[in-house]
Design brief:
Layout (H helix, E strand, L loop, with lengths): L4 H19 L7 E7 L16 E10 L2 E7 L4 H43 L1
Helix pairs in contact: 1-2
């Protein structure tokens, strides 16, 4: 992480632009998982053959103390995956902004320490 005031400001500005760009697209926390299951009908092939079980994609997310799963249709899967990826990019930008703020705090502390040493 840069320690120079100008470098930190430039990095913060670039990250702010990325943050604004991400805020204009769908964001979704969760994971897209594939589940393999039996349907419950006694005469279905999935009841006898484990390889014939039904596959489906689901978005799982932990909200309000419970894990929720929503079936994702094949035609919606790309959009859901893009929203989940955008959410992950959002957190990467937030983490980078946090690193900038920490570097700035450390720089300010160093400058105050040096100023006190000069006065002494």
């Amino acid at each position: 992480m840069p320690s120079n005031r100008g470098q930190i400001a430039r990095r913060r500005r670039r990250l702010g632009e990325q943050l604004r760009a991400l805020s204009e697209q769908p964001l979704m926390r969760g994971s897209v998982v594939e589940r393999v299951r039996r349907c419950g009908r006694a005469n279905c092939a999935c009841a006898r053959d484990p390889r014939a079980r039904h596959r489906g994609r689901f978005l799982t997310v932990h909200l309000q103390g419970a894990t929720q799963a929503v079936h994702v249709r094949p035609e919606d899967e790309a959009a859901v995956r893009a929203a989940v990826a955008a959410y992950q990019r959002l957190w990467a930008v937030i983490n980078a902004l946090t690193a900038c703020e920490l570097a700035d705090l450390r720089r300010q502390a160093r400058e105050r320490r040096r100023a006190r040493q000069r006065r002494a």
